[in-house]
Amino acid sequence: MDNKQAYKKYVDRRAARSPVLRNCVAAFWVGGSICVLGQLLLTLYRRLGLLLDEASTLVSVSLIFLAAALTALGIFDRIARYAGAGTLVPITGFANSVVSPAIDTKSEGLVLGVGAKIFTIAGPVLLYGILCGAVYGVIYYIVTLFM
Amino acid sequence: MGHILKPRERVRIFSRGSAVGHDEYRGPLGGLFDFHDKTDRFGADTWEKAEGELGRTALNLALNRAKLSHTVLDLLFAGDLQNQCVASSGGLSSFGLPYVGLYGACSTFVEGLLCATMALSSCRELSRVGVVTTSHNCAAERQFRLPLEYGGQRTPTAQWTATAGGCVLLERGESGVCVDRVMAGRMVDGGISDAANMGAAMAPAAADSLLRFFSESGEVPTDYDAVVTGDLGREGSAILSDLLAPHGISLGDRHRDCGVMLYDPDRQDVHAGGSGCGCIASVSCAYFLPKMEKKEMKRILLMATGALMSPSSIQQGGAIIGIAPIVTLEVRE
């Protein structure tokens, strides 16, 4: 190849693409199933007499627990390798992204290992999520002053 | 003046040892390795220490094969994929041998052979030298990519770091599997910064080395029973072939890539193939060297391919520099 740009173009052109359709189908049915499970749990908790607010919180807690347990058992990553965004987008993906570095960094100790690195993946979501929440709050406050 | 170095005194490989993890054992070459551990732990409590144990095991296997004690070795060249090569120092320090740590990413095995050959052929004080290189999937994933249990998908061009280690022992000698010539790689910047396509990052370096080697030596690929590359994978191998074609060089069926050979793509989810400095080390020690000992292969060209990068350089968008040192081996009576 004559130059780097030409080589990069050639490499990009020949690189096999991820199977987008297959990934979408897998993400749809696994992600959908997780949502159905959430809905079933919600119905169950409501039947047990919880208020809607309490029941929805408990659904999140249950799904987080399930994802964390499956991560610890070494099963979650195998499901995710197939499901992709199907397990990443629901709260299960967030749970996995916190639990997996915690398991991984145990060997470096509880403070500098787990403590310092538990949010290496979830950190950006937390930082910018909270930041956006704060900005939205300020805007909302200003808007309410005039309404 | 030239790039190809011909040792003044002939150097031979007199012993070898290979050890691998579970996935490598399940691959097509599984039964050929001297040792495997299905837990991938090699008796250690962390993955980093496990890689050290892997190297220690490979060296012990090579010493056992030659029925020698480690005290006969005068110098050890070793390297791995971890920061500051801690797997090599951690695993091999107990031998108490003079040690030179090497880093050539996945090219370290041939880099070690090159150094050992130059040392033995020029220093009469040395009689026997060892070369050990290792890589461990779990230690590499942790250092270069994501936590082991993180759930995500990889691109088809990504490669799988092999949990593998290999060791060869060398001495001066005229018979058996001898090192014929060595050639250092040049650092080649192909402009690729995607760590999920290391085959593409290393292929320009591989092409550069082969073109220099064949043009300077006047040889052609068919002069060898096999032109072995380290870990270009399926993607990098195809690119290498495209890069060589305009120069009238075709490797054809002489080309064997250790990263492709190590796993079965239909059964094992390794995408473009294996990688890591244990890849060519273990496959050479378990497959190519035995073939040469049995004289099924007489001359081979070993070219390891390394992607020189760090997690920081990748995050900063820096290009991955490729390097591909060459050593040619021949069987002598």
Brief write-up:
Chain A is built from 8 helices and no strands.
What does this structure look like?
- Chain A is mostly helical and 147 residues long.
- Chain A has one domain (4-145).
- Chain A is built from 8 helices and no strands.
- In chain A, helix 3 (52-72) packs across helix 6.
- The longest helix of chain A has 28 residues, at 20-47.
- The radius of gyration of chain A is 21 Å and the shape is extended.
- Chain B is α/β, with parallel strands linked by helices.
- Chain B has 2 domains: 4-172, Stage V sporulation protein AD (Peroxisomal Thiolase, Chain A, domain 1); 177-332, Peroxisomal Thiolase, Chain A, domain 1 (3-Layer(aba) Sandwich), CATH 3.40.47.40.
- In chain B, 33% of the residues lie in helices and 23% in strands.
- Chain B contains 10 helices and 17 strands.
- Chain B has helices at 22-25, 47-65, 86-92, 108-122, 137-144, 198-217, 233-244, 258-261, 277-293, 311-315; strands at 4-5, 11-20, 35-36, 75-79, 99-101, 128-135, 160-161, 164-172, 176-183, 188-189, 226-229, 255-257, 274-275, 299-303, 306-308, 321-323, 326-332.
- In chain B, strands 1, 2, 3, 4, 5, 6, 8, 9, 11, 12, 14 and 17 form a 12-stranded mixed β-sheet that branches. A 3-stranded antiparallel β-sheet of chain B has the order 10-16-15. A two-stranded parallel sheet of chain B has the order 7-13.
- In chain B, helix 2 crosses helix 3 and helix 6 (198-217) crosses helix 7 (233-244).
- The chains are: A mainly alpha (147), B alpha/beta (333).
- The A-B interface holds A 1, 4-5, 7-8, 10-11, 14-18, 23, 71-72, 74, 76-77, 79-81, 83-84, 87-88, 93, 96-97, 99-101, 103-105, 107, 120-121 and B 45-48, 142, 146-153, 155-157, 189-192, 197, 200, 204, 235, 238-239, 242-243, 269.
